[in-house]
Amino acid sequence: AKHNGRDGIIVFNEELCELVQRKLDIERLLHFALEKDEISLVYQPQIDEKNLVVGCEVLVRWHNEKLGFVPPDIFIPIAENTGFIIELGEYILYEAFQTIKEWDTSDLGIKQVSINISMRQLMHQDFLNTIQRAMKKYFRYGCEINIIFEITETSASDDYRSLVRVMNILKRYGITFSMDDFGTGYSSLSYLRELPIEELKIDKSFISQLADVQQASLVKTIVDIAKNLNLTIVAEGVEEEYQREYLQELDCDLYQGYLYSKPIKKEEFENFCRK
Ligand code: C2E
Ligand code: CA
Ligand code: CA
Question: Which residue ranges does the record assign to the EAL domain (predicted)?
């Protein structure tokens, strides 16, 4: 083992090098993830105030033989930067729609399914065509399950009017919108009022700090605003019983988090619904 400061610096450089190398590996290997069948979907239950399962959020997973599991927090931003998110997002969409179609004709009682859509994907020129094709393929005869697109306010969108236009067209296909990660990014109050959204998700970073009085009153304010705007309120990252209790006092509509279930495989989620 090396002990002196000089070697410490060398070790640090090696670590830094490894980090940079890993990011390069991720970028390179992500590109083949679809053709190598390394991408899969998991589903995290959403629960209502009576403790019934109403649906789930679809979350992507990537397992690579060299890198192991890479978290979406890491590879989604990379995919957004390289443009690979278009291909990846389309794959996720088709997979999710296929599953929703199966659930729609089942007796599982699933009411809604939420899919994360990157801003870059939503605003891509082919997106509306992709949706149209997918709708035709899977829901030619309609769909009882409410399909929700979760969007995040990345920047005070440079093309705000096109965004509203695209969202309104998608609404005509029966898709509704949820504002994800509310309170973390640039999402502003005027956005909430002007965008055609039906649901608001309180970010897990707020929920995890509910023990703090100031944070708790901030969450109450967010809930009040959402109620004023008639939005369905989803609390994400609910891990503890006291969090659920407080959120229930505020009259949140839906709950999602490890307290109920982690994101799970399709068959596991189906069993979860049957319980
Ligand atoms: P998100 O949309 O805010 O998703 C919620 C994240 O919180 C998920 O992480 C979920 O596994 C995690 N989570 C749920 N309950 C709890 C809890 O009780 N405690 C804690 N600590 N975490 C909880 P995940 O699956 O790693 O996804 C991370 C982010 O990656 C997502 O954040 C979303 O921004 C992005 N992402 C995931 N799947 C997709 C996808 O299919 N498409 C796109 N565009 N982005 C995705
Ligand atoms: Ca989400
Ligand atoms: Ca979040």
Answer: 23-275
pLDDT at site 275: 87
pLDDT digits (tens, 9 = 90+) for 205-261: 999 999 999 999 999 999 999 999 999 999 999 999 999 999 999 999 999 999 999
Cα–Cα distance, 206 to 210 (Å, whole number): 7
Residue 8: φ, ψ to 5°: -55, -45
Query: What Rg do the C-alpha atoms of the chain give, in angstroms?
Result: 20
ipTM: 0.99
Q: What is the largest CA-CA distance in the chain?
A: 71
If one residue of 204, 206, 209, 238 were mutated to test the ligand 1 pocket, choosing by the most ligand atoms within 8 A of its CB, it would be 204
Residue 13 burial by CB count (10 A; 0-12/13-18/19+): exposed, middle or buried? exposed
Pocket test for ligand 1, best of 30, 81, 236, 262 (most atoms within 8 A of CB): 236
pTM here is 0.94
- Which of ligand 1's atoms lies nearest the C-alpha of 76? 45
- As given in the structure block, the two tokens for residue 256 are 């999602």
Contacts of 214 (CB under 8 A, 6+ apart): none
